[in-house]
Each structure stands twice: as C-alpha cells, then as structure tokens.
Amino acid sequence: MIFNKDTAEKTAELLLQINAIKLNPENPFTWASGWKSPIYCDNRLILSFPAIRNYVRDEFAKNIERQFGKPEVIAGVATGAIGIGILVAESLGLPFVYVRPEAKKHGRQNQVEGFLHKGQNVVVVEDLISTGKSSLMAVEALRNEGANIKGMAAIFTYGFNVAEENFKNANIDLYTLSNYANLLDLAVQKQYISEDQQSALQDWSVSPSTWRQE
C-alpha cells in the first residue's frame, strides 16, 4: 500500500528522471532469478542526488511517524537500504541498526548489526520489494533479537500478489513511497513510454515468472 497518491507520483517521476528505474519492454532485463523483466530498479542511485535523497528521507520520516507512530529504532535491510535508513533515522533522531542477509561466519556472528534492546519498537526501511522474501527474512532476524516490528516502509514495490500474501502471512504492514501502478501511469503521462508499451508492462505484472519465457 502506498502512503499517499501525491507522494507515489512524485517519487515515480524522480526515479525515472535519474534512471533509477529503467523501462524497456522490447529488450527485457534478466533478473538473478531467471525472470525476464521489462523494468529494472536500482534505488541506490538516489543517494547520489542530494535533493532527491533528501526528498525520500523527508517523505519516509513524515509518513513513518504518521502511519506507525514514532518508533524507537530504524532498521535498514542490507545493503540497498542502509544508506537511506541512516538518513531516516538521523531525521527522526533515532538509533539505527541494519540486517545482513545472513549471520556473519566469523567474529560475533551477528546478523543484526547495531545496538537493539529486546522489546524496542522498530520500523524496517527497505529500498525495493519484489516477492518480499528477503525483506521478511530481515524481519524474522529482528524478531529473533526481540524487536517489536511496527511495520516496513519501502521506496518502491512491484506490487506482486505473492508479496502481498507473504506480508499478510507474516503479519507485517507494508507501506511504500511509490509502486508499479503509479509508475506506469506517470510514465505514460510524461511520455517515458507509449500506451502500447504500457500494455506490455501491465502484462508482465500479471505473471512475471512466466512472461516471455521460452
């Protein structure tokens, strides 16, 4: 679910402007999973544009507090959400921790890096939601450390049904600055893509795992 429509449209436009999101249905990208995709999203580019990263920071900070109440800790999911998570925590004057994909094999063998009290209220910041699997693994790691997860806030989601089911089953509320549906509407409006291209992009979102597979 998006925080609000205006933020969703503005965020989508900014991501397109800096090529953090690329749309190319004629020459699709191949994800690590093997899926063919007409969209590629790299939100880490946001950090290289001060005005845009400040906008994302401010929208996160404002909407997190409005939606979840002020948490006690902000947690970023490594590695894509560490940078923006730190900015959000700084804006809210809160501690920050981050979650590795898995525990280290050496040293203290931490998966959650930073100081976290059991029972603290945590909002998790993520950069991108596809199926939600890796994001929810981070939630599980935080819960194993005793955190009380208030919800997750992400920059962008593809809006897959499987992700909605995964978050529902994990009992985690997910809110995003923008999503795929708002991106496509904005991309047509601003002439980043044609209406024919929009149709192909909509077809992909219905069944991304089988789209244009041989």
TrEMBL record:
Chain residues that bind orotate: 130
An MF annotation (GO) of this entry: orotate phosphoribosyltransferase activity
Pfam families, per the entry: Pribosyltran
A Gene Ontology biological process term: 'de novo' UMP biosynthetic process
Record keywords: Glycosyltransferase, Magnesium, Pyrimidine biosynthesis, Transferase
Enzyme class: transferase
EC number: 2.4.2.10
SUPFAM superfamilies linked to this entry: PRTase-like
Amino acids binding 5-phospho-alpha-D-ribose 1-diphosphate: 100, 104, 106, 126-134
Record-linked InterPro entries: OPRT, Or_phspho_trans_dom, PRTase-like, PRTase_dom
Keyword check for Glycosyltransferase: yes
Domain Phosphoribosyltransferase per the UniProt entry, residue ranges: 58-156
CDD domains named in the record: PRTases_typeI
Keyword Magnesium belongs to the record: yes
Names of the cofactor(s): Mg(2+)
UniProt pathway: Pyrimidine metabolism; UMP biosynthesis via de novo pathway; UMP from orotate: step 1/2
Subunit structure: Homodimer.
Cited PANTHER family: OROTATE PHOSPHORIBOSYLTRANSFERASE, URIDINE 5'-MONOPHOSPHATE SYNTHASE
NCBIfam families attached to this UniProt entry: pyrE
Family membership: Belongs to the purine/pyrimidine phosphoribosyltransferase family. PyrE subfamily.
Protein name in UniProt: Orotate phosphoribosyltransferase
Origin organism lineage: Bacteria, Pseudomonadati, Bacteroidota, Flavobacteriia, Flavobacteriales
The gene coding this protein: pyrE
